[in-house]
Fold OsmC family peroxiredoxin.
Amino acid sequence: MAAGRCAPGAGRRCRGRRRGARDLGRGCARRPPGSSGAGGRGRAAPDRSGAPGSAHRPGGPRQALIPRRGASPTLPTGNRPDQPRGNAVTTRITADLTGGTCVRITNGNHVWTADEPTDAGGEDTGPNPYELLLGALAACTCITVALYCRHKGWPLDNVSVEYTHDRAHADDCEACEDEARGYLDRVRGRVFIDGNFDDEQRERLQEIAVKCPVHKTLDRGITFDGEEVHVG
């Protein structure tokens, strides 16, 4: 289920192809009344139509912010894991198969579960790996906007993010054997930011919303630097 795959053996490197990341934030539209946020286990969010490019107005409906292409915003600095002072920060995740396709994932004091849906041979005890990946991207987007507004003292009320990917689940295992295809085919996102912002703040948030650290990591590609596989 990995997004990219290298053959066993230390020192071998492969670089993930950038596919779909530049679709993030495109096609944003007004959220229909009564629609939910990023919740739900569905593999794809329903289509939401509306007039793109609309901005939030005080007292008006909540609307999506569409990023301007080619923008290079500067995020607030501080003691953030993605911007360490001095040496790089290493993130460690441990995963153990607990039965069937259920996986227990740990990181420090945090524990969560990953699984496959029942129609893919799992027990649906947790999100699948693709959903975890999109969840990490969505969470990073929310946190980045929140930290930026806090840094600027801007009146943020809420951030809601939706991400979808198009790959059919049945193709996943087949793609794992083909390094050239072991990636998300297309990722699309909608970011909804609520707050009483002026035009300048609104334009800036349109840029910041698609520049979170996880987004930039996926966009520029990932290097797998020596994956060790021990069998037996």
Observations:
- Confidence is low (pLDDT under 50) at residues 1-63, 65-85.
- Helices lie at 129-152, 172-176, 199-208, 213-220.
- The chain has four helices and seven strands.
- The longest helix spans residues 129-152.
